[in-house]
DUF3298 and DUF4163 domain-containing protein (Flagellimonas iocasae), 246 residues
Amino acid sequence: MKKCLGLLLILWIPFGCETEHKLTFEPLKLQGESCANCPEIEITLPNALDDSGVATAINRSLREEVIALLSFSENEDIENVDQAMGSFTESYKELKTKFPDEIGWEAKINGEVIYEDAHLITIVVNSYTFTGGAHGYGSTSYLNFDKVEGTELENWELFDDLEGFETYAESKFKTQEDIPQEANINATGFMFEGDAFHLPNNVGYTQDGVQLIYNQYEVASYADGPIILTLPFSEINSYLKYKVGS
């Protein structure tokens, strides 16, 4: 019996160490107004429950992300997600009044935690919006947070050696996209501004490594879709401020 208890204790200790740094979330699900002339709005976000600075920062940043995706008028003073959903709905209703044949709008936003350790947490927000025209627009956003400082991080704050990381990422990007290493980054049809490689607007930690996502139109045409490059931690740890597995 003592041997069994000892084995259970050994098994329990690493499990406890693995989970003790995890934040607590509950899903926050929101839907838009239901009516004949209402757009379809579906939102699912992780809502941080902890009484901590990083939990406050996460919930605030997610709220701001949704507001930016749904708001249409720069003159509106929108402070919360409900108001943003109302703005999206009223914009469609107004257009529908002027143009009765307008196709229904929709907005689908989904967020989830995709990486977390004792120091950093990354949340990905996938969204799709259709507001008329030939097609809708899908995008992916990464939100990275320093759990100790309780702040959202800018992309450059993820790195100890940003310049070195950019040089390495460019080489890997060229290899992935079949661009000769000595050629200009736009040699095969990409549209990097100034003919120079740069990191995307969205960089995030994942279980597989640091992921770079160039959303549609960022460096290529809509038809090309998002361009994704994942760099394993084992190859890039020396460039990172938040190192993994070392």
